[in-house]
Amino acid sequence: MRIDDHPLVAEVTSTGAPRTTATARPPAPPAVSSLMLDMLEWLARAPRSYGDAMEAWRSSCPRFTIWEDALGDGLIRVERGAGPAMNETRVALTPIGRAMLSDHRCAEPVAVS
User: Fold this and answer.
1) Average predicted confidence (pLDDT) for the chain
2) Which of 4, 21, 79, 110 is least surrounded, with the fewest CB atoms within 10 Å of its CB?
3) List of long-range contacts for 67-75, beta carbons under 8 Å, 24+ apart
4) Helix or strand or coil: residue 11?
């Protein structure tokens, strides 16, 4: 794609005033994997220490980036505790993470008799 073909590139009218070729659309919400929702749900159920979170969600696999993605997307935050121990540091959902979880929570299945 040439830069001139980009829908948000401004054109200049004959009077020199900018004219936008298209209306900017708000960014689409990021796609949420079921694994990401599992992690957010796990964090929402109970207070979790950094040590617990690392034990449950850390991976050395370059294709399993759930922890890094959640931090990078601003869905979770690490809150320092009173001391240096990993169990005194907490991992919590951010308001963005809570909203995402709320938006994607499925209703409880209804039992059919």
Assistant:
1) 74
2) 110
3) 67/39, 69/36, 70/36, 70/39, 70/40, 70/97, 73/30, 75/36, 75/40, 75/100
4) strand
